[in-house]
Description:
The protein has 138 residues and is mostly beta strands. The protein is built from 2 helices and 10 strands, in the order E-E-E-H-E-E-E-E-E-E-E-H.
Amino acid sequence: MTTPDAGHAPQTPQTPQKRWYEGGCHCGRVRFRVRINTPHALACNCSMCAKKGMINLIASAEDFELLQGEEALATYQFNTKVAEHRFCTTCGIHPFSRPRSHPDGYDVNARCLDAGFEFLEIAPFDGQNWEASVDSIR
């Protein structure tokens, strides 16, 4: 398979809307790509996302690929210790996590996309009341 340029995936009859985007941490040690199927993201108000300023882009495991930097990543867990918040040990940026809402998928920090995140439709998510709100995540 040929790796598409970031944000410029070839259109095929099977995946007319799917596009790959690349991103990474600030220092560049961690690089990933994510296939965005629909341009929807969340602005969560939980204590973690609010402090990080994270824009949450949920992706399935098949729509995410870590290109480099596994050795540069550390994991932070709190509360239920289900979610795995991954961050670069060099620059401290949190490019993605393994979220509690989608434990087999990824939650990409859209602010870490090379192409920016302005093309995404961003909806608020009430993470302060996570248990009552989680079913609203697409």
